[in-house]
# Entry
Amino acid sequence: MNRLDKKQIFIGTILGIILSTLTLILLTRNIQPLSAQQTQPQYMIFKTSREGFKFLKQNPIGSRQPAEYAPIFAQTPNEYSFGNQVATKEYVDSKSGVSIIEEDIQTGVKYTISGPICAEEYGVYIYEKNGNYGEIYFTSMTGRSNKFHLDLDNSEGGAWFVNFDCGGWGVCDTIVQQMSGGYYYGNQLAFVVAKWDWNRADKVYISGSGLGFTEINKNDSKIIWKTGRKFLGNNYGCGRNWSLEVRATSNYASDQVFSIPISPSNLAIGRGNLGSGKIVRKYLGDSLIALIVNNTNETKTTVNIPLADVIQLCGDIDGCSFYFYKRYHNSNETYQIEGPLLFRYDISTKKWVSGYEGNPRFTAGTDGDRNTQHIWGPMNCYFTDGEYIDGNNSGDPYIGLGLLDWDSNDNMYCYLVIKD
# Structure
């Protein structure tokens, strides 16, 4: 063996040691070769000292602990994004997480307005206080926020119609701030959809299509809510199910608290009473996926379910499912459970239908037709379109559904679960 061969062997040995050392370092730092990174990714939320990002989560070779790979950049995904695109933490938190919101319903009064409308991608609700009255205005704008566009599904009665070009992308957002009474320099861009007397209401809460449960304070002078994009659908479209509900704690009757504004005749408006209870809403991102309602006393008074929630869960083509369970007041233990049944609510006709999957028998009715009809009533718990106050049947005078506990002596509450 000559000197050159020995030199080559020595150099090769040194290079081998270096490569082995680098490989060991790579493995201990949880870095994988490119081929290993090209497997189907799973995601986790990881917060850095600067911003929160969505990190790829992989199991390195020879380790049970997942490695976290920071992206070079992050951006908000859209409908054209790849499935493994990295997203900002703000987007992930708002779109991917499951959140729960609880609402305690106090005895009071309610106001509802609903019907099929023609609307754009964004809905805009505006609260203004005018003297002793609170008013809610509604309109819709394009996805680029460059035009207000709203119309009725038909022309019965006084029509709502807006088609106003704001003059550029995003300009409508500025104009909303300058509106007063729904007008902007003589142009009516929003219509009053609810009105109440603050002298006869203690607390006021609103909820509606694209609008989460929100409290309005007596001291508030103006509040603007812009819904998420495509709150009723993509681009401009008609026949879209829209609704708004206002609730107030009050010692007055509903017709003494709420005024009925001038509105097109194909929109249904109702006023009624509230029984005390509790509502728990479960969201996946911005979408309502389940609702739980229960009574908190046993006075045989209906606990009303917000119509906007019913429409969002049960008003689409596949409807919803629901079931009951009962629970003692002072225990988390479930006593009995019944269901589920299938249910669908048509906002245009206010007709509803329920039944068992695979069973041709069904129950059907019409909401607001003055005749009480029970959707289902096991265990003395009723899902109903009627209104009961202290055990007295008031018929079905208003639009809206509710929960009724008819057993006032069993020391248990009724729980109604509705799932999309």
Remarks:
- The CA atoms of residues 133 and 197 lie 5 Å apart.
